[in-house]
Specification:
Radius of gyration of chain C: 28 Å
CATH class of one domain in chain A: Mainly Alpha
Shape of chain A: globular
Number of helices of chain A: 6
Mean pLDDT of chain C: 83
CATH architecture of one domain in chain A: Up-down Bundle
Helix content of chain C: over 70%
Structural class of chain C: mainly alpha
Number of helices of chain C: 26
CATH superfamily of one domain in chain A: NADH-ubiquinone/plastoquinone oxidoreductase chain 6, subunit NuoJ
Mean pLDDT of chain A: 79
Low-confidence stretches of chain A: 165-171
Order of helices and strands of chain C: HHEEHHHHHHHHHHHHHHHHHHHHHHHH
CATH topology of one domain in chain A: Four Helix Bundle (Hemerythrin (Met), subunit A)
Number of domains of chain C: 2
Chains: A mainly alpha, B mainly alpha, C mainly alpha, D mainly alpha, E mainly alpha
Shape of chain C: globular
Low-confidence stretches of chain C: none
Strand content of chain A: under 5%
Distance between the termini of chain A: 57 Å
Radius of gyration of chain A: 21 Å
Oligomer: heteropentamer
Largest sheet of chain C: 2 strands, antiparallel
Number of strands of chain A: 0
Order of helices and strands of chain A: HHHHHH
Chain lengths: ~170, ~100, ~650, ~350, ~120
């Protein structure tokens, strides 16, 4: 039960911070709240028994990807005044309520007797080891392909970011 | 580690996160915030993977989650590179300047 | 092992073409030679395996194409014919590769040259090894492509590029024949595999009509293909122009291997040809007249490579003649001997050209014997071989063909007579070439900027292949000593018995070809042989008389003085090219232009433009929602998702 | 002493809070002592006296109270915030910098377990199976403190200083992470306490089994804390004081605190990874337990670890007064073009050697 | 006890103590604000603010950091499973590292890491 309580706590933190990410005008604040969301989700992973996922979440997601965001914000030196306002919000309220209702009903209907019972016993205690073995045996090719993907991303981002583009046409 | 968190909770949390992310993509005019909202959506998928992994009882979901992190890293890198390029070209990063698809 | 034969040249081509550093000529040469040399060793092993087993071997690679009933596996066959061919291709190929390293020493882009050359070897091997028409066709087109690339190797000069283009286009005509042949074959027999086709032909003996009309058309279509590739009348015109390529290319592709593909293909399908006597007659006449026609042109040519090119056309005519009279084994034997001595002659000519700093006009040569002793010696052997001096390889193979032509029941003596005349011409122009080049005083152009360079013998790795080829030009002849001669020493025609079982007459067609195995008086054979020896000696002697130690007049001067129009006609190569230009190319171009103007510009473009204008006019009505705002698009995507979600709840 | 009303969980929670408070009080004493050392040590090297006046009445205590006075003074200073600063982040940044370092230092196993009233209590506040990854993760989060401080101050020296400092920190995080992998390969665990147990005898110490790792780790220790000779971010001549130019009073003290805590934590980590942690060389822990009992032996262990860490703290000071400062391009080149390939090569060689020895 | 509970405890206690410490001077220190005091320190010259933009190299450094951060994480996974995987794992990880090193070499070749 304690775990469920913590689950709710972190869920609320994650959702609140996520709302902040999309509503705050200051991009650095948004980035920091994104870190909060990510860390709260990492806590949820720990509660779900996925230690390694939590570690990679904090290490790579919060520690590296958001750093990149922060750097770019500071690089472009985007102050508050450069951030555009929100687009029309009224239809979002409608959409949001509809979607929430639909999703909750759907999840409820789905979960009645359809989801498999949680098979906790088969998950061992040494999470890192198990993930490693799965990754390096069954997911061998995706793993190697992932490295290729990273390579391509690095090359592409350097090409895009380094090369000075044409002067503005109509801005 | 012993108590069970019902998967419905994770599903609803993931769904809400996804929606917040999607809303962020749609209502923000700042490209960087749009990218961050995409990260939120990816995270909701991650949460689903991890929850499903626990439900099914093997670590495949967690492996997929680490691949999603890799993809998110690549997406962020290229997306931000494009933000820089767009900034150089237009002098700002508001999305309403990107209207090449106008019919 | 058989796959290694194919893999090495391909690997060499890939390495030279894409992977290796391009600066080092030594490296690219070494890689190319190593690739072909290894392929040769593997081919030897394959051949010995086959020879020990004496049974055709099939090697299934993978299923390549499947469309309905049409199945084409990627399958290779090693039998008497392809086993011999891979030895010729890789063996002579290796020698020429070694030689080419010296010949191409001053080029900048040798890697390109050797990549093409290795690719050619690969394609040629594919052509001869394929066990069905499609694999053969891949090789067929592949060698055409390589030939085009190599003829145009010095593409900076427009003439070379045009020569390559011409070869490519003329070959296309033949290829269309080949393709139609494949289509017809599949339509009538439902397969393109040689082994299956051959068993089909045997089965057909039980049918009431043993010779369906289709076989005539099939064989004729394939023969058109062979005419294109093997430079027969009327499609021979590309081969003389192909001499624009580097000389090793001429030796390898346009003398020893690729141009014999037509003869190879007809031999491969000999069971078809035996079943189509009408086609055979056409084949025989085309071959015989090509042999004479090209030989007469060669009489007056002054470019050393052009002489050899026409000589090649003429010799190919002999081989086609052999096929036409049903003596496929004689044709293949001549193919073998010709590969040796013609490669030798071309490489020798290449050495001369190399020594003369790329001078090709024989009127500017002369007296080279003392400068190029080795080249002279091997060229002499080559000339003796080609003109058919007894004891040299050409003698055995050419006489066999003439003999088989003579005993051909329909118009046999006429065919023999044409071939006989051509043999005389051959002897004349080859001796003329030898005399103009190596004997007499030197006629080097004193104004050439490199006149202070004395011609000098080529380095060892250029003359060593020549010596080997010279040895082969003598030796291989003894593989095919005719039976009546061999019986004198108690032997028999080794080559014919080797090919036995490959070239066979379908049971149903036996009656038409009884003469091939009929008994003939030995006196007739002896008589014909001695006649041709005498005739060749006479022609050669005339040439020596005309050209040794004399100012360059000879027969050209004689003809020029007494029959100027004949001389001009020969110099103009019977004006075939001009005729093609006037009667075919120009009208075609005009029709094309007309159709282009009418259909493309008016009708097709008109329709397309009209549709476009219509759409442009009306699209504004539908595009008012396309604001270009990603937010809006995204909103509707999400709204759709919500709709599906809501819908799925109920 | 019997505590029958408490169950295991409650005891452990109380023990965690107590352990953390002890650690916190301990690390709060590090900056004053270290600053005193940093002023006395160069004085010693340069044959002058250094601070020696401030004392307690007539006991001067070698000036030990000078830094205490400094600290008190800092607290009683006025807090000035630049008008153009982003106020919220300006106040938050020192905290964001401090908390990860506290998490870091809490995950160090200071000694073997003790036993109080029958409850077994480990001597690390946080003990995780993925300890090494945890430390890397919190180090990564720590970068935000520096970045935010500079950005929130909204001054060009601060911003440039913070960007430089954070770029430097992330650049050296990679070799730091890579340098630990050979140890994981050798000892087969990510748990720090298990790493220590694996180094039970001297010749199994990390420094002997993977000296190159130690070399890389040592350099990264200096770079990660922005200490000399890598203190580019606060190069006075060009950037005034780097990312904390605008900070004063207690918040300045917090930056100081987190820097010294990080130094201490890294020193402890270095001892744990490469020098057998709390184990005394040549004396087995079992022997110690049989001689002194569990609790006393554990205290000896803690003292041993602190002694080892103290050496590295001294090394920090020593290096600072010995080596000149690097240039920024030299710094980045060292990290990316030397340490990174070296770390990768080290991993490859270690793996190959292990595989060959195993096969 | 959940092994991660101490993390939470440390976080909470540290947050409280940190907050207290950072507001010490707000309680004890004087408050005499003035316009000049609130200017950003720029060595005494009139204030310009931090409006100029920074070099794109910081961004490239961060890109490379992400690249190798991911690699490090996967290397940890591999190191943990090294004893079970043996040579197979070595080959696998070498391919992985080789591909990433190709990216590293590319970055070096493009001179993206040259600081002037």
């Amino acid at each position: 039960m304690i775990e469920l309580g913590f689950f709710y706590l972190f869920a609320v933190i994650a959702l609140g911070a996520a709302l902040g990410v999309i509503l705050l005008k200051n991009p650095v604040a948004a980035a920091m709240l994104l870190v909060v969301t990510l860390c709260a989700l990492a806590a949820e992973y720990v509660l779900l028994g996925a230690e390694f996922s939590a570690a990679i979440q904090v290490l790579v997601y919060a520690g590296a990807i958001v750093i990149l965001f922060t750097f770019v914000i500071m690089l472009l030196n985007l102050g508050q005044e450069e951030v555009g306002q929100l687009m029309g919000v009224s239809k979002w309220a409608l959409l949001f309520s509809l979607l929430t209702g639909a999703a909750i009903i759907l999840i409820q209907r789905l979960s009645v007797g359809r989801l498999p019972e949680a098979a906790l016993s088969t998950l061992g205690s040494d999470n890192v080891y198990e993930v490693g073995m799965a990754l390096f045996t069954r997911y061998l090719w995706p793993f190697e392909l992932a490295s290729l993907l990273i390579l391509l991303a690095v090359i592409a981002s350097i090409v895009i970011a380094k090369k000075p583009t044409l002067p503005a046409r109509d801005a | 580690m012993s108590s069970i968190i019902p998967i419905e909770h994770s599903l609803i949390l993931a769904f809400l996160l996804f929606f917040i992310g999607a809303a962020g993509v749609l209502i923000r005019r700042n490209l960087i915030t749009v990218l961050m909202s995409i990260e939120l959506m990816l995270n909701s998928a991650n949460l689903l993977f991890v929850a499903a992994s626990r439900q099914v009882g093997n670590v495949d979901g967690q492996v997929m989650m680490s691949f999603v992190v890799v993809i998110a890293a690549c997406e962020a890198a290229i997306g931000l590179a494009m933000v820089i390029a767009i900034f150089r070209r237009y002098g700002n990063i508001k999305t309403e300047f990107l209207r090449a698809l106008r019919g | 092992m058989i796959w290694m034969v194919l893999a090495f040249p391909l690997l060499g081509a890939l390495l030279n073409g894409f992977l290796l550093p391009r600066r080092s000529k030594f490296l690219s040469h070494g890689v190319a030679v190593a690739a072909v040399g290894s392929a040769f060793l593997c081919a030897c092993s394959v051949f010995l395996d086959f020879f020990a087993a004496r049974r055709p071997q099939l090697h299934f690679g993978f299923e390549w194409l499947r469309a309905g009933k049409f199945v084409a596996p990627f399958e290779l066959a090693v039998d008497q014919l392809s086993g011999l061919m891979i030895l010729i291709i890789t063996g002579i190929g290796t020698l020429i590769h070694i030689y080419a390293g010296g010949y191409m020493k001053e080029e900048e882009t040798t890697y390109r040259f050797f990549a093409y050359l290795n690719l050619f070897i690969f394609m040629m091997l594919l052509l001869v090894l394929g066990n069905n028409l499609l694999v053969m066709f891949v090789g067929w087109e592949g060698v055409g492509l390589c030939s085009y690339l190599l003829i145009g190797y010095w593409f900076q000069e427009e003439a070379n590029a045009k020569a390559g283009m011409k070869a490519f286009l003329v070959n296309r005509i033949g290829d269309i024949g080949f393709l139609i042949g494949i289509f017809l074959t599949f339509r009538h027999f439902g397969t393109v595999s040689f082994t299956e086709l051959s068993s089909w032909i045997n089965l057909m003996t039980t049918l009431p009509d043993p010779y369906p009309k289709a076989i005539f058309w099939i064989t004729l279509s394939f023969f058109i293909g062979a005419c294109g590739k093997s430079a027969q009348l009327p499609l021979y015109v590309w081969l003389p122009d192909a001499m624009a390529g580097p000389t090793p290319v001429s030796a390898l592709i346009h003398a020893a291997t690729m141009v014999t593909a037509g003869i190879f293909m007809m031999t491969r399908m000999s069971f078809f040809y035996y079943a189509a006597p009408d086609t055979m007659l056409i084949v025989a006449f085309v071959g015989a007249f090509t042999a004479l026609f090209a030989a007469t042109i060669a009489l007056v040519q002054t470019d050393i490579k052009k002489v050899l090119a026409y000589s090649t056309v003429s010799q190919l005519g002999y081989m086609v003649l052999a096929c036409g009279v049903g003596a496929f084994d004689a044709g293949v034997f001549h193919l073998l001997t010709h590969a040796c001595f013609k490669a030798l002659l071309f490489l020798g000519a290449g050495s001369v050209i190399f020594a003369m700093h790329h001078e090709q006009d024989m009127r500017r040569m002369g007296g080279l014997r003392k400068h190029l002793p080795i080249t002279h010696a091997v060229m002499l052997i080559g000339v003796l071989a080609i003109i058919g001096v007894p004891g040299f390889s050409g003698f055995f193979s050419k006489d066999e063909i003439l003999w088989k032509a003579f005993i051909f029941p329909t118009y046999g003596p006429i065919l023999w007579g044409v071939g006989f005349l051509a043999a005389g011409c051959t002897a004349f122009y080859m001796v003329r070439l030898l005399c103009l080049t190596f004997y007499g005083p030197s006629y080097q152009d004193p104004h050439a900027h490199h006149h202070h360079h004395e011609p000098h013998e080529t380095p060892w790795y250029m003359w060593a292949p020549l010596v080997i080829l010279a040895f082969l030009s003598v030796a291989v002849g003894y593989l095919g000593v005719p039976d009546f001669l061999a019986h004198l020493v108690g032997g028999r025609n080794l080559f014919a018995s080797y090919l036995e079982g490959l070239v066979y007459i379908p049971t149903s067609a036996r009656s038409a070809w009884t003469h091939l195995h009929a008994e003939h008086a030995h006196s007739l054979e002896w008589g014909l042989m001695l006649t041709s020896v005498a005739w060749v000696t006479l022609a050669a002697g005339t040439a020596v008389f005309c050209y040794v130690n004399r100012p360059v007049r000879g027969i050209a001067g004689f003809l020029g003085a007494h029959f100027p129009r004949v001389h001009q006609l020969l110099l103009d190569k019977y004006r075939v090219d001009e005729c093609y230009q006037q009667k075919i190319v120009t009208p075609l171009a005009e029709i094309s232009t007309f159709l282009w103007q009418l259909f493309d510009v008016r009708i097709l473009n008109g329709c397309v433009n009209w549709v476009g204008y219509l759409l442009m006019g009306t699209s504004g009505i539908a595009s008012f929602r396309m604001t270009g705002s990603l937010h809006r698009y995204g909103f509707w995507v999400l709204a759709g998702t919500v709709g599906i979600l809501v819908f799925s709840c109920f | 002493m019997e505590l029958p009303v408490l169950d295991e969980t409650a005891v452990q929670i109380i023990a965690t809070v107590v352990k953390f408070l002890v650690v916190l009080v301990a690390v709060l004493h590090i900056p004053p002592v270290m600053i005193w050392v940093e002023r006395r040590a160069p004085a010693l090297m340069q044959r002058r006296r250094g601070p020696n006046r401030v004392g307690f009445f007539r006991w001067r205590l070698w000036g030990l109270l000078q830094t205490l006075a400094d600290a008190v003074k800092l607290i009683f200073k006025e807090e000035s915030v630049p008008g153009s600063a982003y106020r919220g982040f300006f106040h938050l940044a020192p905290l964001i910098g401090l908390i990860p370092t506290l998490l870091f230092v809490s995950s160090i196993p200071f000694g073997p377990g003790i036993e109080i009233g029958g409850w077994k209590i480990s001597l690390s506040v946080i003990e995780l199976d993925i300890g090494a990854l945890f430390i890397l993760a919190v180090t990564g989060i720590g970068v935000y403190g520096v970045t935010l401080a500079g950005w929130a101050s909204n001054g060009k020296f601060s911003l440039l200083g913070s960007l430089r400092a954070s770029a430097q920190m992330i650049s050296y995080e990679i070799p730091l992470g890579l340098s630990l992998i050979p140890l994981v390969l050798i000892y087969g665990s990510l748990n720090l306490q298990q790493l220590i147990y694996a180094q039970s005898v001297v010749w199994k110490w990390g420094i002997f089994l993977s000296p190159i790792s130690f070399f890389i780790f040592l350099i990264c220790m200096f770079a990660e804390t922005n200490r000399a000779p890598f203190d580019l971010s606060e190069g006075e001549s060009e950037l005034v004081a780097g990312f904390h130019t605008e900070y004063g009073s207690a918040k300045f003290a917090l930056f100081f605190l987190s820097e010294y805590v990080a130094m201490f934590a890294l020193s402890c980590l270095c001892s744990v990874l490469f020098f057998g942690g709390w184990q005394i060389p040549f004396v087995s822990h079992a022997l110690l337990v049989s001689l002194l009992g569990v609790n006393l032996a554990a205290l000896v262990g803690v003292a041993t670890l602190l002694l080892k860490a103290a050496f590295f703290m001294w090394l920090y000071v020593w290096v600072r007064w010995t080596l000149p400062r690097f240039r920024y391009d030299q710094l980045m080149n060292l990290g990316w073009k030397f340490l990174l390939p070296l770390g990768l090569a080290n991993i490859c060689v270690t793996a190959l050697v292990l595989a060959v020895m195993g096969a | 006890m959940h092994p991660y509970l101490p993390v939470l405890i440390v976080l909470a206690v540290a947050l409280v103590i940190g907050l207290v410490m950072s507001f010490l001077s707000a309680f004890f220190g004087p408050k005499v604000p003035s316009a000049v005091k609130q200017e950003v320190f720029e060595c005494g010259v009139p204030e310009l603010g931090s409006r100029e933009r920074m070099s794109v190299r910081f961004y490239l450094t961060a890109i490379l950091f992400i690249l190798f951060d991911i690699e490090t994480v996967f290397l940890y996974l591999w190191a943990r499973t090294f004893k079970s995987l043996g040579w197979f794992g070595i080959v696998e990880i070498f391919v992985f590292v080789a591909i990433l090193v190709a990216g590293y070499v590319y970055v070096l070749k493009r001179k993206a890491l040259e600081w002037e």
